[in-house]
Amino acid sequence: MSTRRSRSRQAGAGRITDEQIDDLMSKLQAILPEARLGRNDRVSAAKVLQEACGYIRSLHREMDDLSERLSELLSTTEMSSAQAAVVRSLLM
Amino acid sequence: MEAARSSQRARAVIGREKSDSLSFLDLGILTVDLAGFDAGRKYCGLVRRLSAAISTDLEVSEGISMAVPNAVGESVLMGGGERKRKRGSEPSAPLSKWRTEGEQRIYSSRLIEALRRVCQSSASAPSASSSDHVRSCAVRKAADRVLAVSARGRTRWSRAILSGRTLKHRVRPKGSRPKPVISAIVARAAAQRRKTPALEKKTRVLGRLVPGCRKLPLPSLLEEASGYITALEMQVRAMSTIAEAFSAAGSASLPPIHANPM
Fold first, then answer.
1. Distance of residue B247 Cα from the nearest chain A Cα, in angstroms
2. Does the interface ipTM go beyond 0.85?
3. How far apart are CA B74 and CA B236, in angstroms?
4. Domain boundaries in chain A?
5. B135-175 pLDDT, tens per residue?
6. Which CATH code fits A18-91?
């Protein structure tokens, strides 16, 4: 049991390769909106991380704004189950 | 029987050393792969009770979700809702699921239900929660919770949200949480091989932004961040669509017009 543990521990250390990190970085870069980075050329890891942080922050801000808007709409519109059906039909 | 022995061994190991996530991992793979689905289910029940007892910040729960192969993982982690193993029925790019219209529709209907509950609760206690800020916070929290549920608990950020928003809105209870020391050191050493201090700092900032990912090594953090960003994008899309629908429904209370907002 201890041998397997030490073996897998060593394998765990080697499993996280530079290649894997680069791969994940480019995947993250692909997700970020194109305006932030030129998608064709590879940008530095620091830039990707920075843009990711900025993007998440802006998404959070958008979420807060939307929550505020929705809560106002909720307060003004009396939400009955009939209206829930109406809204649902508008969505689907 | 193999299954009984595996789960017994799992129990013994869990009892002895809760913090060694690597042997946990091994047992996970062993139980699910060798002893089959039913043993995997038993193991899953064990795992879930254990994860409920320990904070989700532990690498234990991360190890489980990463050890069990995806197709089986879905059934195992969901407590065996499906009787068959669904190998290969998972989308190979889990990120793309957030972009599908179906997923957004599911999220929207769940969110509307949650919003209705928020509305009812704020209506029944008008003095307490009549302030706009409280209500919008409640809306935001409900939206995040529904999003986390839609992730089916397979990502760390979703588990962190469901276990009570350890980062944003609450002060975290100061840790008396056992940390998996061995694997944390190993993972950190491996991921930190050639990181400059600038990169280190940005990594930490990113870790703070994604729920439940503060002490995560870089590769896992990147993965979680990608999933989190795509999920957030879907959340924003769904909520803006719902807001449009609400204002349309509010301004004109007509019989439903079948419009396709997407």
1. 7
2. no
3. 26
4. 18-91
5. 888 888 888 888 888 888 788 888 888 887 654 544 445 54
6. 4.10.280
